Input
Amino acid sequence: MKTEQTEIYSALVHLYDTLMKDVDYEMWADFIDEVIQTHHPDPIEVMEMACGTGAIALCLSELDEYKLTATDQSEAMVEKARQKAAEQEADVQFHTMDFRDINSNKKYDVIFSVFDSVNYLHNEADILKMLQGCQDILKPGGLLIYDFSTPQNSLEAVDYLNNEEGSFGSYRYFRESRYEPGEQFHYNEFDIEELAEDGKTVIRSFNEVHKQRIYSLQEMLSILEQTSYHQVAKYEGFDLVDADENSTRITMVLRCQKQQ
Output
């Protein structure tokens, strides 16, 4: 049987919520809410980039504080998110959008992205393009919040991510994970199988390679120096504590400086 090489999250969408089952989404949403409330006096319009199947946006909608829009480049992920929103009767607008090509007729008070999605941007030029795209649709004084994982995170995480396997419904997966410090890339390769009703016979086989560029704090700060954003904060983990080069995950909080 030939294995299909697929775009990231096109096959994995069926297993994404299983893959993320140990994630405390409410804690993540509470942290984003705390950051927003700490640094923005009166936020209304909020957009999430790279929302996946919508878990964080749906958690935030329960707070009934924001008008929420959530976007992802994967149509399959967005469709899954819409299904979950309908089931929960949640008021979140989901749209397909690549954060390397941001476009919106609406202006936002806050834009945020979590789960190190920015690490999927493989070079400085792509990050600058994302930052400019966000600036174009942020209101003056608006916030851009995003996290990224660091070399320290990859060094700590690669062993427990490697050789991971799981299943949900008629799908199962096996993950190989490796970090190449010299290249500054972390690779997660998923072999995914769709099974027949007997739960054994493989109908189709897929392969997805997820490649993330791992940035140090200094590299990210050097990129930000090329923009007009004001750096409000850089937080470590889920606390409003200043991050440093030893932090594994860093949340950047930036303010849009453009004039009315």
Notes: The CA atoms of residues 73 and 97 lie 5 Å apart. The longest helix spans residues 25-39. The chain is about 30% helix and 35% strand.
